[in-house]
């Protein structure tokens, strides 16, 4: 377990202040994809509740893993502005097909870390012609404020030393390595684009360095 405890002194004695990530619960979670275990964590530093969906018996090395940033509009509402919902579904199917694996669902990552309302405000600016990077900057918000330290702590708690990371984002790989999780392979998670998200995806490739080679085959989309 990766829980870290700090002790602060007070006039009335000693009190403990927790920091880091604490494992709170491990519950069975039957889904349309298969039978997962939902392992719930509390991030004492940020106050976020996190969950890792674990399928099968995971080992220490080369565990098929997805770090999925929370996206209410895509994951729950089926938004075509992004590919997040389809990526989440594909990742869950992939770990089931593999026989074991982990999907870490990272709350607090909405809109690349700017929050739901910030994301909606950015989407409104994108409807006026700005791209996703320009929209964030126009609002005085960071382009990407996500931190993956919590994800690494969760993987350490689960006994994972190295992963096969389902992601097109090189920043996720770099962050895990910096936090002591080796990435044996970066597995593409490519979703066919549609007219509503092609500009967004091209911006992610051209300005955020996401590896999206399949976009070359859809030049006909606006």
UniProtKB/TrEMBL annotation:
Zn(2+) binds at residues 71, 82, 84. It comes from Streptomyces muensis. This is GTP cyclohydrolase-2. One of its GO terms (cellular component) is cytosol. Residues 22-188 form the GTP cyclohydrolase II domain. Its cofactor is Zn(2+). It holds the Pfam family GTP_cyclohydro2. GO terms for biological process: riboflavin biosynthetic process. One of its GO terms (molecular function) is GTP cyclohydrolase II activity. The keyword Zinc-finger does not apply. GTP binds at residues 66-70, 87, 110-112, 132, 167, 172. CDD domains: GTP_cyclohydro2. InterPro entries: GTP_cyclohydro_II, RibA, RibA-like_sf. Keywords: GTP-binding, Hydrolase, Metal-binding, Nucleotide-binding, Riboflavin biosynthesis, Zinc. HAMAP family: RibA. Binds 1 zinc ion per subunit. It catalyses: GTP + 4 H2O = 2,5-diamino-6-hydroxy-4-(5-phosphoribosylamino)-pyrimidine + formate + 2 phosphate + 3 H(+). Its EC number is 3.5.4.25. Belongs to the GTP cyclohydrolase II family. In the N-terminal section; belongs to the DHBP synthase family. Catalyzes the conversion of GTP to 2,5-diamino-6-ribosylamino-4(3H)-pyrimidinone 5'-phosphate (DARP), formate and pyrophosphate. It is an enzyme of class 3 (hydrolase). The active site is at 144 (proton acceptor), 146 (nucleophile). Pathway: Cofactor biosynthesis; riboflavin biosynthesis; 5-amino-6-(D-ribitylamino)uracil from GTP: step 1/4. The keyword GTP-binding applies.
């Amino acid at each position: 377990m990766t829980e870290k405890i700090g002790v602060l002194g007070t006039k009335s004695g000693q009190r403990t202040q927790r920091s880091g990530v604490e494992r709170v619960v491990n519950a069975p979670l039957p889904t349309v994809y298969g039978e997962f275990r939902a392992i719930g964590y509390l991030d004492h530093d940020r106050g976020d509740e996190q969950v890792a969906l674990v399928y099968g018996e995971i080992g220490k090395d080369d565990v098929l893993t997805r770090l999925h940033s929370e996206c209410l509009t895509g994951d729950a509402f089926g938004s075509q502005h992004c590919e997040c919902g389809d990526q989440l579904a594909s990742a869950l199917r992939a770990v089931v097909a593999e026989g074991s694996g982990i999907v870490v669902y990272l709350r607090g990552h909405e809109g690349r870390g700017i929050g739901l309302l910030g994301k909606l405000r950015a989407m409104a600016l994108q409807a006026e012609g700005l791209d996703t990077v320009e929209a964030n900057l126009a609002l005085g918000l960071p382009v990407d404020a996500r931190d993956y330290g919590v994800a690494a702590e969760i993987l350490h708690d689960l006994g994972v030393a190295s992963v096969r990371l389902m992601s097109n984002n090189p920043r996720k790989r770099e962050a895990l390595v910096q936090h002591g999780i080796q990435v044996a392979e970066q597995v593409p998670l490519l979703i066919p684009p549609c007219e509503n998200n092609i500009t967004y995806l091209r911006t992610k490739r051209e300005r955020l360095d996401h590896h999206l080679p399949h976009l070359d085959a859809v030049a006909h989309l606006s």
